[in-house]
Amino acid sequence: MGDSPEFKFVVDMPKNAARIDEKEWERLKDTILGRYTGGMKLEDVMEFMKEEHNFTATKRQYVHRIGMIWGVRKYRAGAAKKGTKKPGHRSTSPEGETKPSAAAVAPAVAPAPVPATSPPAGSRRTAGLGLADSQTARTTTAYVRDVKPGQLATAQTYSPAMGGEEKKRLYHQVANFLAALGDGKSCYQICALLYQARTLQDHVPDETHLDHVVACNQTQQTDKHSEEVLAMLQDNVDHLLDPDGSDMTWQTCFFDLLQAHAYDRGHDEKAAIGQIIRFVNTYLEPDLVLKIIPGRGYPVDIQAYQYLSYSLIRYNDNIHATKGHDFVDTATILDQFIGQQPAFATKNPLLLSCLGDCRAWCISVLECGPAIPGKIRHARAGQVGATYQILCTLWYIWMSELFPRSLSHARGGSSRRAYPLANWADDVKPQLGISPSELLTTVVCMIMAAAPFPHDDHAAPDFIEQALAGARDLDAVSPEDLIRRFLDQVRETSDRRLTTQVVDERDKVGVAEIIQARKIAAPFRNFIASAFGDIELPALDKDAIVIPVALTTAREVDREDGREHEMLSDPLSPIRPALQTSDSQYPAVPPMYSARLQPTAVDHHHMLKLQINERGGRRRAQSDGGGAAAEPPDFD
């Protein structure tokens, strides 16, 4: 790397916690487990050991030792029901090995409470300790036998033939796209099965494996999902964080907030809010300034940004539980977080190139004039429907580059058109920590938010032309405005996904909106299944909550409190005129980072503008020589 900036914060980092000798742990094992299994919270055990035995260790070291090494974990009694393994047929993998099919997997078995002793040696389950111990105030504590990871109830209702690794990669892309459509439950079912398949095949957890865990966490909708996600997190605790490292890292924060969200989805609000309160008390200074701690290795960690926003929203929603603390200014804290990210702290625009490249690719493809597939061309044309039509068209063209054989079956060997290659896709995960589908969805939402509205109400709208106009308008905005719009859209989408709760059947308005959202999503789900031919999607049942996209169109400043407030489109309304994006019609956006956090922000944004424009220009110049891609099919 030489003198080039590294992926780190430009401040002194906390030191890793000192390693504790194995003999010391074993000497105190009975004392620690006796206190913990006797009902004490982990924090109380830590305090007791420090005061009475002069023994100091971090929470993460306790979690690793008690869960991974000693095999003890706390569990809510009765949270899982007894079950038995059912015989099932066995299938042969592409490598020739015989492995159990997904349908042969039975739910986890939860026995009656057993005496407070350490479970048998070799237990593979890890501990969810200290992260939701507040639940012990209202539930009894039990200990469960070792359960083979990956035993998910999803397989009993949905078990498609996923085949080899390429087919699994295709299903992974489909799951990401279903999440973009707001169909979180279907995304969860697919990702849970992909996670299960890798676990049963004894794959060493890798980035893809952990991506399934995070995707399931984001899209879980039921109490059973929550139980399964908590088990996934516990099974992968050593891979999601460094157990011997400092507690003061974003790796630790991210894991804790994943657990908080799982408890929240499982209707254990007390445990979730308790965890979030501990997060706020630990990582925010008394003057509500976000502490600077080591990151997770991404130039801009969008996933951490999403869960930070979720946690602050839930904190403010439950301010009565924070013992007199004030509301936190969510926008200010989030801006502080972004200002601390390596792409901005090091002022290196190369670390954020995928955003400009994706925008340039969308423009290049739209300039080719692709046809919207007939199966979705006449779908509902509200803002959500129009956005989904453009998203489906662009996504299909991108998928034809990745999976030409899968799509050629649906096309029946028809002609192909040359489109520019999606060279931006490989940079998304390393730069932002999210999937390429999520970036594409966000950019399409930004494009459609800037798209003009047809003046003739009786004419059939040309969404390709409107999208192209919006994309060109987006191409003209300043780098700071582009980044701000991107972050606003990311936050709006993720906040809806992470904070939307199950609607009570008595809430007629909420139920009606959910039914309408399902109807909007249905033709686009059918398009995916038809496009790939042999893809089997989960049923869109009446219990599924579909969360449609909402377009963030502008920001305005409240003159009374001086804070910015987002102006959002109504996701279920017909298309209405969008703001014409001249410089005068977008209010001046205050500097994204304060002078205290980012004194050279102007220089950085100038560098970023050059980088985005140069790379975007090259992409458009190369569009005529791009790769061949399938024209979106007409399934009329």
TrEMBL record:
Report the residue ranges that make up the Clr5 domain in this protein: 22-74
- Region of interest: Disordered: 79-135, 613-636
The organism's place on the tree of life at top rank? Eukaryota
Ranges annotated as biased composition (Low complexity): 100-109
The record's section on InterPro entries has: Clr5_dom
Q: Which PANTHER family match?
A: CLR5 DOMAIN-CONTAINING PROTEIN
* Name of protein: Clr5 domain-containing protein
Please give the organism. Lasiosphaeria miniovina
Cite the source lineage.
Eukaryota, Fungi, Dikarya, Ascomycota, Pezizomycotina
